[in-house]
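task queued by scheduler; priority normal; single chain, no ligands, no partner chains; default sampling; output format set to structure tokens
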Amino acid sequence: MKLISAVFNFYVNASIHVAFAVVAFMAITVLEYDLRISASLWFFVFFGTVAGYNFIKYIEIVSRSDAETDWLFKFMLVFSFLCFGLTIYFVSQLSLETMGLAAILSLLTFFYAVPLLKRSSLRNLGGIKIFIVGLVWAGVTVILPVVASKMAFDADIWLTFAQRFFMVLVLTLPFEIRDLHLDISALKTIPQQLGLSNTRSFGYFLLLATLALDGFKDEFSTVYFISLLIICAIIIGVLITSEENQRKHFASFWVEGIPIYWLVLLLLIKELF
């Protein structure tokens, strides 16, 4: 049991789970628009997510000279550096347009954790943290594969981008609710400003907007909408049960895995129809 627990904790803490979630979101975009993208982009997004998230989570610990770390943490750092190296390799295999967009999104991720011009990092600027996360996730999982496949942008793509942006905002709320007693007031997170009840209402509104936007698409997909409707209902259940005192892996595993469940659900519904 100790071995299983150690492997599971490494899987979550090393950001492997969130990397699969980001890849799942991108796969949903690929399925919705029948895109053709290279294996290099899949690997770039996976390894880049691992490297980026671990950089954000552990940069402060690594930068402290008095930080005490165990062998597992050191192994995680080695793993993260390996993923960073693979990220560089796979991004070099992409087109110049895709590389340029990837560079912009990577810079946003970098300055999310590192202060810009010795000032506050984007993560610590009051009220915008959640929106930076949503912008990067939506950019990576919608805009990046569209650019890589050389598909022409139309209104449907931007509607999907807005939907993904809204969904990521909602999926971030359980994390902000969990950290409500830890976050300093200067962060001005959504729960800090709205309270728990209004934060949930804000999430419901964004999910309703996400569903409504699907009706404005020129190419309406019944299969996609059914899967979206079901996953939004699941997220509503998550919001209702989100509290400050959460089970250890409620947010970091179950909530973070929702894009993976959505991908599986979409594939199952496609088989049925």
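post-processing summary
- The CA atoms of residues 9 and 264 lie 23 Å apart.
- The chain has a mean pLDDT of 89.
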